[in-house]
Amino acid sequence: FFKDKTVLDIGCGTGILSLFAAKAGARLVVAVDQSEAIYKAMDIAIENGMNSKIKFIKDKLESVVWESHGLPQKYDIIISEWMGYFLLFEGMLDSVLYARNTCLNDSGALLPNRTSLSIAGINDIELQNRYIDFWDNVYDFKMSSMKSEVIKDALIESISSDVIATSVCVVKKFDLMQCLLEETQHFETDFQLVSQSDGNIIAIIGWFDCNFDLEALEHKVILSTSPFSESTHWKQTVFLLKKPIITKIGDKIDGKIKVYRNKKELRSLVVHIDINGCDKQTFYLS
Questions:
Q1: pTM of the entire structure?
Q2: Which residues form the Protein arginine N-methyltransferase domain (predicted)?
């Protein structure tokens, strides 16, 4: 798929994706990153004898003047590891979609090409004890007033599939070859979770999947950050509930979720979850 193609790597970091592309036979790889990490990427490319195939640009993608580097503006393939916690944290997708609109050949490919966000309810007693019940007795002092502060911040935790207590609901899908920037910056949708056991739902968790499944790809791949898959550094995002939802098997939990950028800090996210029209909470990823 990469043989004799031109490839643009956005936010290259250590350059690992650029190395893979060059190894797979790309004719030219251009790696862009505005951080100091790009200098290490240059050293790594030299270490691996790839510096003749990979060209590095230290700049913000939107500011690159391609002619000044003697490089083309259009590429056959755009690759990027842009995903943040709960997929959209850090806002790097903005640059990827800008590149898709300005730097991708008409018949080009953006990888990954599809993503989705999913949620489920959990009954995790250990998590409840660590973050909520802990405040009931701190060295024999009651600090339960802290609970309301603690639950505002979404947690990043590795959640065992054993504590998943509901069905899974996909709350958003993005076709990255076509979606609009606005769709990724603000969305709202209904959801329904079905209880799979009797007990308490103490939190809603979220994760994402990335699909590399364009028709031209010989091998289709899914990168999943689901608790049912091998753990990744993205883990899962946990939204602790103010009060547990007591459920019987088969009970339906209806709600709305709204996700949008924090205007005060554009790399951050605000997540509103409204369960059954009465329990509303706001969470922050920052």
A1: 0.90
A2: 114-274
Distance from the Cα of residue 102 to its chain's centroid:
23
CA quadruple 144, 148, 276, 257: dihedral positive or negative?
negative
Q: Mark whether 128 and 212 lie in a shared domain.
A: yes
Residue 107 belongs to some domain of the structure? no
* 183 in the same domain as 43: no
- Same-domain status, 154 and 16: no
Q: Label residue 221 exposed, middle or buried (CB < 10 Å: 0-12, 13-18, 19+).
A: exposed
Residue 268: CB atoms within 10 Å: 17
CATH value at residue 148: 2.70.160.11
- Asked if residue 175 is part of any domain, the answer here is yes
Q: Please tell me whether residues 119 and 261 are part of one structural domain.
A: yes
**139 and 250 both lie in a single domain:** yes
Q: What is the pLDDT along the chain (286 residues), one digit of tens a residue?
A: 999 999 999 999 999 999 999 999 999 999 999 999 999 999 999 999 999 999 999 999 999 999 999 999 999 999 999 999 999 998 899 999 999 999 999 999 999 999 999 999 999 988 988 888 888 888 989 888 888 888 899 999 999 999 999 999 999 999 999 999 999 999 999 999 999 999 999 999 999 999 999 888 888 999 999 999 999 999 999 999 988 999 999 999 999 999 998 887 878 899 999 998 778 899 999 8
Contact 2, 21 (CB under 8 A): yes
Q: Are residues 183 and 73 in the same domain?
A: no
Q: Which residues are catalytic?
A: 81, 90
Q: Where are the alpha helices (DSSP H) in the chain?
A: 16-23, 37-47, 93-103, 125-131, 147-150, 181-185
List, in order, residues 6 or more apart from 86 with CB less than 8 Å away.
Answer: 117, 154, 206, 207, 208, 237, 259, 269, 271, 285
